[in-house]
Amino acid sequence: MTTEIIISGFGGQGILSMGKILAYCALMDGKEATWMPAYGPEQRGGTANVTVIVSDKPISSPILSRYDIAIVLNQPSLDKFQHRVKPGGTLIYDCFGISSPPTRTDIQVFSIDAMAKATELQNAKVFNMVVLGALLGTHPITSTDALRRVLEKTLPERSHSLIPLNLQAVEEGRKMVSQA
Hints:
The protein is an alpha/beta fold. The chain has six helices and six strands, in the order βαβββαββαααα. The two termini are 25 Å apart.
């Protein structure tokens, strides 16, 4: 099975990190994965996005024009990508950054308030992990074990004390979509 994902929002929201973590998790689970970021001046507040493909088979190209799943964290990203979700696909958006909600009726739509949840967890830096949790709650693409191992490998040693908080943020994101 192949899952094609676009994650998009403002630079600084952890978009690229989220995509990289997801791709690494897929590799840890023995799957094929691609990670293709698109950024430039976006790293400092413009719109950034990353395409992630996870598959049981080799992936021929990381370039896509339609997606199974779109995660959008600001209005420009919603405007650009909501119509590129395949019918029957999934759109997850953070309601904090959206002024005009999605209008599609042929896809599953999940609204989450990841910023409020990150604030509740007393660390705004786990915002992207809450969003990742929402994705994993709708599509369990990877295991919690792989996620833990990826965080241990990718976070610097001095940040390992934050792994439990990151895993808690993922679990809170899962809960947000399971209650929808």
